[in-house]
Amino acid sequence: MNKQPKTQNSRSGFYATLALVGQVGFYIAAPLVAGAFIGEKIDGAFHNSTPFATLLGLLLGLVVGVVLVVRAVLQLPKN
């Protein structure tokens, strides 16, 4: 009987989607940068000329970023 106006529900869904868009860039970029940084430090510690650990860190960072984005999308409210 005491229903919220339809504009209130659509507004909250809009803001949730807008917040997700803001988070997606961070969710992708932060693990990539961290993986590359850690991989670079590992490569530097072993004085290795091949960037194997850096590439592996980037790949792992990408996987972590995609998992974070998928989890965030699944938490969106259903309309």
Word description of this protein:
- With 79 residues, this protein is mainly alpha-helical.
- The protein has a domain at 23-74.
- 80% of the residues lie in helices and 0% in strands.
- The chain contains two helices and no strands.
- The protein has helices at residues 6-45, 52-74.
- 11% of the residues are buried.
Summary tags:
79 residues; mainly alpha; 0% strand; rod-shaped
How far apart, in Å, are the first and last alpha carbons?
Answer: 20 Å
Q: How many strands, what sense, and barrel or not for the largest sheet? A: none
Structural class: mainly alpha
Overall, the morphology is: rod-shaped
Low-pLDDT stretches are none
Summed over residues and divided by their number, the pLDDT gives a mean of 83
Number of helices, where a helix is a run of at least 4 consecutive DSSP H or I residues: 2
Order of helices and strands: HH
The total strand number stands at 0
Give the radius of gyration.
19 Å
DSSP strand content = under 5%
Query: Helicity level, as a percent range?
Result: over 70%
Brief digest:
80% of the residues lie in helices and 0% in strands.
List the helices and strands and how they pair.
Elements: H1 6-45, H2 52-74
Helix pairs in contact: 1-2
